[in-house]
Design goal:
The protein has about 160 residues and is α/β, with parallel strands linked by helices. It contains 8 helices and 5 strands. The chain has a single domain, classed as Rossmann fold (3-Layer(aba) Sandwich), CATH 3.40.50. Helices cover about 40% and strands about 10% of the residues. Strands 3-2-1-4-5 form a 5-stranded parallel beta sheet, sandwiched between helices.
Length: about 160
């Protein structure tokens, strides 16, 4: 595990569950086809055992990021990625400020939506968001972690062992 307290792992996860996924993990799935996110991508496909929420702010950030030269994505590829994103996410209104500290103002939208909609998880690799995990859990019972943490949660048995 990458830093999630065992106390944050429930006896058994309840599916379907709602999550917020940050831009870097979306890039891992949609642009890079990262093997570490393939299971997550499968869970996002119908029948959607995992339901990702997204605000217009979050979509706009992804749309901006994929235009950057380092990704070398032509207009057609960008449009296809955004269409796949749009077909996968559940649209949610921009959430009010949850009043939790966040080191990076650009990450606040993810934290606010996860807390405001009481999602099961906020999936991120971002240090600013990961730094908020303990406080977010204590105040709102929303988990923040990386994709492997989420997999560990999904695989939890009734007695806390892994399958």
């Amino acid at each position: 595990m990458s830093g999630i307290s065992p106390l944050m792992l429930p006896v058994r996860p309840v599916l379907p569950c709602r999550v917020v996924i940050d831009t870097n993990i979306w890039l891992d799935m949609l642009v890079f086809d990262d093997p570490r996110t393939r299971r997550l991508a499968t869970l996002l496909a119908p029948p959607m055992q995992v339901q990702p929420l997204s605000s217009e702010e979050m979509r706009a950030e992804l749309a901006d990021v994929i235009t950057r030269p380092q990704f070398a994505l032509d207009d057609d590829r960008q449009a296809a990625l955004l269409a796949r994103y749009d077909a996968t996410v559940l649209a949610a209104p921009i959430a009010p400020d949850c009043r939790l500290p966040c080191r990076d103002p650009d990450d606040r939208k993810f934290l606010d939506l996860a807390v405001g909609r009481r999602t099961a998880w906020l999936l991120s690799r971002d240090r600013a968001l990961l730094a908020a995990r303990k406080l977010t859990w204590r105040r709102f019972a929303v988990r923040i972690g990386q994709v492997p943490d989420f997999y560990n949660w999904l695989d939890a048995d009734l007695d806390g062992t892994r399958t």
